[in-house]
Amino acid sequence: MIPEIDALIHAHVKEGEPGAAVAVIEAGAVTHRRGYGLANIEWRIPIAPDTVFRLASITKQFTATAIMMLQAAGKLSLDDPLTKFLPAYPTSGHDIFVHHLLTHTSGIKSYTSIEGWFPNRIVHDMTPQALCDAFSQIPFDFKPGARFLYNNSGYHLLGMIIEQVSGVSYAEFIQENIFRPLGMNHSYYMSNEPIIPKRASGYGRTEQGFRNAAYLSMTQPYAAGSLGSTVDDLVLWANAVRQHRLVSSAAQARMFTPVSLADGQTEQYGFGWGMSNYRGHHFVQHGGGINGFSTFIAQFLAEPVTIIVLANREDLDTGGLTLKIARHLLGLPAIVRKPITLTPAAKARVEGKYLVDHQWPLEIVHEDDDLYLKTEKAEKLLPLSENTFYLEADPETELHFAEDKDGKFQQLTRIHPLFPFTAHREHDE
Question: Is pLDDT of 429 > 50?
């Protein structure tokens, strides 16, 4: 066990709360594996390394690997059109290929971003085809290959392709071709109905305290977010990825290659893995969020270090915790910031509403002489200059403002090792 990691987790997980399981692999050996907090509050059952969590979008690593395995077997090609497998899919005249689905560049509407899907439609059991029928009728967000926009519908379609090519269900393919060969005996498709030993309960936090997570039908996350596992099983998975036990080194390298867009720009996402850099240390990663759970896995490529954090609570920043653990393991000093004082006029330049990818809203507000970034929650901003700020609770995160017009900044860029983005001022305020 590593005492510094215990201290990091205990700062976020209090006695009697839901918590997390954490595993660290260094040079192939497990140097830390431990549970923190409760897997079930009502029965006060503690989390252990063999507690089963919903993985949410970490599922995408398994789906992408399944596609690469099928390509190696000659069953499909990354350059195959979607209509080869789903001939009735309405493409609106677009050419959609398997690689577009893997890299979130298809332009197909992500069903989880359809207005009203949460919380109303997510509770309904749906077959893969029925869910496909629901999102396939909606106009494309953009021409395939033109942009990157994180997309659960693309991975849903990959699950349907796996079933079409293999002749078995997605759940069965993953179980027989990945989980079983790797000895991942406590990993599952997380349907609501079966009895799954040591399954963690999921929780959300309200002003009144923790509550049981809102229900969703696990028929819907499917190949984009349906799998569940333990940190012990994910250690087996992480080592198999490094050792190329399921796909060749060349195929794995392709999975770790940033996607190129039609205009020549690249996005830091490959096939089921995001690419990141933390103070000069390159790593591949993926996080997940689903009702009641937050997850993250990171593999540093040169060190080699792997960090796995699985939480049964929605409010735990598992990606941020991963970076804090990495900072200790890599011997990196903490970031020290020194804020300056701004005039009211300088603060007013950044205030207002902004949109990420033309649809995800955020707001900068001025309250009690301080600035706050408001998304699902409010986070205090501290200034380094008139156009550069950082989050008080997370000094890793900087916000850069640009494109001054009529005394207001028009563009906000979030600089962060895991979740960078650019947002533009909303003008219909």
Answer: no
Residue 205 lies in a domain: yes
Percent of the chain with pLDDT over 90: 95
Question: How far, in Å, are 243, 252, 268, 299 from residue 240 at the CA level?
Answer: 5, 11, 23, 12
336-368 per-position pLDDT tens digit: 999 999 999 999 999 999 999 877 899 999 999
**Assigned domain for 220 exists:** yes
The CB density around residue 53, as the number of other CB atoms within 10 Å, is: 31
Q: Show the domain range for 371.
A: 344-425
Are 135 and 141 in contact by the 8 Å Cβ rule? The answer is no
* Domain count for the chain: 2
Percent of the chain with pLDDT over 70: 100
Q: State the Cα–Cα distance between residues 165 and 85, nearest whole angstrom.
A: 8
**Using H for helix, E for strand and C for coil, what is the string for the chain?**
CCHHHHHHHHCCCCCCCECEEEEEEECCEEEEEEEECEEECCCCEECCCCCEEECHHHHHHHHHHHHHHHHHCCCCCCCCEHHHHCCCCCCCCCCCEHHHHHCCCCCCCCHHHCCCCCCCHHHCCCCHHHHHHHHHCCCCCCCCCCCCCCCHHHHHHHHHHHHHHHCCCHHHHHHHHHHHHHCCCCCEECCCCCCCCCECCCEEEECCEEEECCCCCCCCCHHHHCEEECHHHHHHHHHHHHCCCCCCHHHHHHHCCCEECCCCCEECECCCCEEEEECCEEEEEEEEEECCEEEEEEEECCCCEEEEEEECECCCCHHHHHHHHHHHHCCCCCCCCCCCCCCHHHHHHHCEEEEECCCEEEEEEEECCEEEEECCCEEEEEECCCCEEEECCEEEEEEEEEEEECCEEEEEEEECCCCCEEEEECCCC
What pLDDT is stored for residue 422 in this prediction? 94
Domain boundary among 269, 297, 329: 329
| Domain harbouring 239, CATH code | 3.40.710.10
Written in H, E and C, the secondary structure of 256-272 is: CCCEECCCCCEECECCC
Residue 18 lies in a domain: no
pLDDT at 62: 98
